[in-house]
Amino acid sequence: MTPETKPEHGAQPSHHADLGEKGARIQGMFDKLAPRYDLMNRVMTMGQDQRWRRFVVARAELAEGGRVLDLASGTGDIALEFKRRLPEATVIAGDFSLGMMRHGITRPHAGQLHWIACDAMRLPFADNSFGAVTFGYLLRNVASIPTALAEVYRVLEPGGKVVCLDTTPPPPGILRPFIRTYLNHGLPLLGRLLSADASAYAYLSSSTQSFETAEDLADLFSGAGFQSVAFRHFMFRTVAIHWARKPS
Ligand SMILES: C[S@@+](CC[C@H](N)C(=O)[O-])C[C@H]1O[C@@H](n2cnc3c(N)ncnc32)[C@H](O)[C@@H]1O
Predict the structure, then answer these.
(1) Atom of ligand 1 nearest to the CA of 30
(2) Which of 101, 178, 210, 214 could bridge across to 7 with cysteines, CB 3.0–4.6 Å?
């Protein structure tokens, strides 16, 4: 698909009413945030975010010529990194925010991706379709993590890899008050200054603090049937990347 074309709709409708209350709220928030999303990401993570995305792509262990779904792809950062590293791969960038995808498809090389509008809770793909499924900052936003993981499991080929990047609640220890202050005050202030949307960054803060710990999230992956579940923390344990395999 070329950058001039519009994102394709998946088989599932993306109308607000079909997404449930939380899904519709999140979709609207990202539609609004889209023009400033990439800038905010670089600033908030002090430029570390692209390093984490490279780690996600490496952990996916996709074969050259393989097929990957980058779910909650947003403006396509992880999907573009797949294409950069594996030019022969078929890379699908799926998201339910048309605003984020419309912004993403104007980026250099974005025409080499397949942009699909889809809801992670009901994926419009056949069983066993992908060698890898990745997602950055999805699970904090869904109404049910087990439902999203069941869908990812279904569309992965046997032996396929899943890789998940997300924030984690502030870890216990000496840094906790500093991290909390940043989440409660620094992030909403940055949001107000850079994106004129403090509420979206207040949501990032509250959803991070109430999210699963990396250990509990690993248990949810195991509970969904994945094997060899592992994770690594980044940036003072405020971010975690999980990876696992669907049994062969
Ligand atoms: C914080 S952005 C992350 C974008 C990208 N993965 C990255 O690393 O920058 C979260 C994305 O998840 C998408 N999202 C949230 N819930 C979703 C769902 N149920 N189905 C599809 N996309 C969803 C949002 O629209 C948004 O684009």
Answers:
(1) 25
(2) 101
